[in-house]
Amino acid sequence: MTTIDSINNWFIQNFGAITIEQVKSWFVYNEDEKLLFNTGLFLGLFLVFYFVYGFLRKTFYLRLTYVILFSLFFYYKSSGIYFLLLLLSSVVDYGLSQIIYRESRDGVKKFYLVISVILNLALLGYFKYMNFLIVTYNDMFHGNFALHNVFLPVGISFYTFQSMSYIIEIYREEIKPTKNYIEYLFFVSFFPQLVAGPIVRAKDFLPQIYQKLNLTKQDVNNALFLIIGGLIKKTVISNYISVNFVDRVFDTPMSYTSFENLMASYGYAIQIYCDFSGYSDMAIGIALLLGFKLPVNFRTPYKSTSITDFWRRWHISLSTWLKDFLYISIGGNRNGSFAGYLFPSLFFFGLLLWGMSCYNESVIPLIIAGVSILIFALSFLLSSKIKQTLVTNFNLFTTMLLGGLWHGAGAQFIVWGALHGLALAVHKIFMEFFPSKKDKSPNFLWRFFSIIITFHFVVFCWIFFRARDFETALQVINNIGQLTFEPELWKTIVLGYKNVFGLMLFGYVWHFLPETFTNGMKSVFDKTPLLVKAIILGFVYWIVYATAVAGSQPFIYFQF
């Protein structure tokens, strides 16, 4: 018969004895041990939190306050004392939103909106772009400004964008402000999506706060299915591929063969998808357990038949935010603006300078610059509506450039955004010459090759996104360009990395499974008893613990 002592001995044997210092570490910030969804610590804390949450489900402000306190603790465990930055930002934006709502004069409302936007972007700019600007200035003007020792708070870009959307929607009179600061802070700090999205819109989330908390059996089924899938994506696939292959190749690409560089590029494509969509799935699932519905953030993006389709499927909450608050604000497809013309012009001018500076070593950069400018120009010059297409393409290009810069301060992120902006412009002119028939779906071959071409373009762009700098990205591309057909060498490499390549294959097969198959799996899961679901979840967490490599790996999008 199993005794308490035997259970205790098993626990100590597998997890070690719990000490006072260990308990203290659960509640104190440690830069090397952030509180992540895929850790046993989060599972334990969340179970305790959720147990109390169940007793507060019929309350309102007490429940909101309780979740806020846990959310601030969650953020403290991710960024330490910088959780105060979130509080400061929320106080300022809440105060300005109240002023804007009560003000009747358009000019004054716009003045306070501009103040809010400047303050938010200045805060984001200092923590994320200060050193990038210093390095750029020093390189261009031979300056000697010292770099700042700046800590980047986790997820600052996400909650900044979320806060900005709230105040902009009030300015546009799309929503009314919250009744008090507690409700607003709940919206901004809601922990499931606080540090890596999905970016929640106030008009979608705020109405849910005031609704009666109603958690159905189907909600629990959906939540557990998402959490289990997200854990497998993140920990079993993404972490293993990253630590055992992708990181090594991208850290020193010249130390690896062309084939390994190519496979690392494919590996990163599935790694970042499993990492980010895995986090989003867990965030949506956890929020669902709390009675809140967050927007879907990914819809099998590598099944996209065009780059336009890709951005309807990848990081949907960000692409929607950029469209509604940046693209439309600078003119959309109707009007040109100074900002809309400025950023593409600066980019192409910089690209041309780069090509000219490299001319003595190689003419290729100058050719790349010239061809890029020509392609972008032809994307609107060949259009039957030149003026409108010009405006649209410049505004699209600006949106993607700034979207790239949002992801990180570096030339490689700017190039990543520019490539997507250029591809969107090319696709628009392509669709003008070869419009799709609305009443007829494309044949299998057309769809197949469209997916293959789009996927490989996206993978190519991911090289810039993953590389630590622009030069490293060029090294990876150059190595892949020297690929030759050597089946024996490829076989040796595949056997050497059989576990990594096996998980990559598993990830891609999972991603490309027909939707009917996924729905069938979901239907079977729904019919299993709740106890079995809980056992499955526990088993997955055990797999997470058993397969942990080099500690818990932070989610890729935490750095943004």
Automatic annotation (TrEMBL):
Transmembrane segments: 35-53, 60-76, 82-99, 111-129, 141-161, 181-200, 220-241, 338-357, 363-383, 390-407, 445-465, 493-513, 534-558
UniProt record similarity statement: Belongs to the membrane-bound acyltransferase family.
GO cellular component labels: plasma membrane
Entry-linked InterPro entries: Ac/AlaTfrase_AlgI/DltB, AlgI, MB_O-acyltransferase, MBOAT_fam
Subcellular location as annotated: Cell membrane
N-terminal signal peptide: none
Domain of life: Bacteria
Keywords: Acyltransferase, Cell membrane, Membrane, Transferase, Transmembrane, Transmembrane helix
Protein name as it appears in the record: D-alanyl-lipoteichoic acid acyltransferase DltB, MBOAT superfamily
Single GO MF annotation: acyltransferase activity
Any Pfam family matching the protein: MBOAT
UniProt main location, coarse: membrane
Topology in the lipid bilayer: Multi-pass membrane protein
UniProt GO BP: alginic acid biosynthetic process
Phylogenetic classification of the source organism: Bacteria, Pseudomonadati, Bacteroidota, Flavobacteriia, Flavobacteriales
